[in-house]
Specification:
Length: 114
């Protein structure tokens, strides 16, 4: 499985951004896709996930109500819409796909700053 992430950038507090991730390769074996993030000096943490079949979502408490994860199985993509961004959302965001192992895309920087 290969993952190609796009989006990210610099945004002011309260602003919005959209991340997208395209999967290729053995996509039939993917059970869950999602986004993780890692801020400087911190461990990588889960942001949101979505299951491939039922579309069941899971969010970190810190992003509930602000972020929305969605998928397009026809295009093999997963997106993360981020609203009401806060400075503490600043991190490198990683796309993730789970089969019987984890696959990671390249990170994309999200910076929330005035």
């Amino acid at each position: 499985v290969q993952l190609q992430a796009s989006g990210g950038g610099l945004v002011q507090p309260g602003g919005s951004l959209r991340l997208s991730c395209a999967a290729s390769g053995s996509i039939f074996s993917i059970n869950i896709m999602g986004w993780y993030r890692q801020a400087p000096g911190k461990q990588r943490e889960l942001v949101a996930t979505i299951t491939s079949r039922a579309g069941t979502t899971n969010y970190a408490d810190s992003v509930k109500g602000r972020f929305t994860i969605s998928r397009d199985n026809a295009k093999n993509t997963v997106a993360l819409r981020m609203n009401s961004l806060k400075p503490e959302d600043t991190a490198v965001y990683y796309c993730n796909a789970q089969t019987n192992r984890h696959y990671w895309g390249q990170g994309t920087q999200v910076t929330v700053s005035s």
